[in-house]
């Protein structure tokens, strides 16, 4: 019996399963509740740093991309189940996540901070915040860090990245932890952020493993072809100075 045709067919199917997503329109999901990285404007359009970056990467890599808004708690399961081909939503790279997702090269290394009413919090240590209400977005590095270290605090978790600020303003939370850039540019620089301030030390992945290695685009682990294309696009965007331009546009001190 000649088994060569079966072998060839098996190899062809394996190759197809590895590259099928890269040859079709690529669906990129984002949780658009985290300005200035991703949000929805008054017309319903997705805007923000990550949105523009994804568009530039797709353009540079010549990928037909469709960026959609998705609920945070369904994004990672959706990627694993191939509902989405990739995720861009300030996703930090951690060892637990590497086990279930592939990641592009890192494009940002965020700093994490607490924010509270001015002069309300002078000690952000676990002992200093005993009994305090800490607001965090669920399933994030901030959630993991707070859960591990602040066992004597009351932790309130939220599905979206903007919701914790509402409780902070209404005094239903004493303090919130998020990305420093997000706190500054989406809250402290806005009218409703007046009377609040950053508190505590600047924290990074060097301070705690929960904060991860940096921020990257997540891709289904079985889609190596798309991973390669996205990395090539990111490399071009970085080399052409587009990444620096986006940094200045969204995070300028002015």
UniProtKB/TrEMBL annotation:
SUPFAM superfamilies on file: Periplasmic binding protein-like II
GO CC list: outer membrane-bounded periplasmic space
PROSITE patterns: SBP_BACTERIAL_3
Signal peptide: 1-22
Organism superkingdom: Bacteria
Subcellular location: Cell envelope
Key words, A-Z: Signal
UniProt similarity note: Belongs to the bacterial solute-binding protein 3 family.
Name of the protein in its database record: Amino acid ABC transporter substrate-binding protein (PAAT family)
Organism: Biostraticola tofi
Lineage, uppermost ranks: Bacteria, Pseudomonadati, Pseudomonadota, Gammaproteobacteria, Enterobacterales
């Amino acid at each position: 019996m000649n088994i060569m045709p079966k072998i060839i067919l098996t190899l062809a199917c394996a190759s197809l399963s590895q590259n099928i997503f890269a040859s079709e329109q690529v669906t990129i999901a984002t949780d658009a509740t985290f300005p200035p990285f991703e949000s929805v404007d008054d017309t319903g359009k997705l805007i923000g740093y990550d949105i523009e970056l994804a568009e530039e990467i797709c353009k540079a890599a010549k990928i037909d991309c469709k960026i959609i808004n998705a609920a945070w708690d369904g994004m990672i399961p959706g990627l694993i189940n191939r509902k989405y081909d990739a995720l861009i939503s300030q996703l930090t790279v951690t060892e637990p996540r590497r086990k279930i997702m592939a990641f592009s090269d890192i494009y940002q290394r965020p700093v994490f901070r607490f924010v509270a009413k001015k002069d309300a919090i002078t000690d952000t240590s676990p002992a200093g915040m005993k009994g305090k209400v800490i607001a965090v977005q669920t399933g994030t590095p901030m959630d993991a860090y707070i859960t591990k270290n602040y066992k004597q605090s009351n932790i309130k978790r939220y599905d979206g990245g903007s919701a914790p600020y509402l409780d902070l303003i209404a005094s239903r939370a004493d303090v919130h932890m998020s990305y420093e850039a997000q706190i500054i540019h989406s809250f402290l620089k806005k009218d409703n952020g007046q009377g609040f301030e950053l508190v505590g030390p600047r924290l990074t992945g060097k301070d705690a493993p929960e904060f991860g290695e940096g921020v990257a685009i997540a891709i289904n682990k079985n889609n190596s072809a798309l991973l390669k294309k996205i990395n090539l696009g990111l490399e071009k965007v970085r080399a052409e100075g587009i990444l620096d331009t986006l940094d200045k546009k969204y995070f300028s001190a002015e």
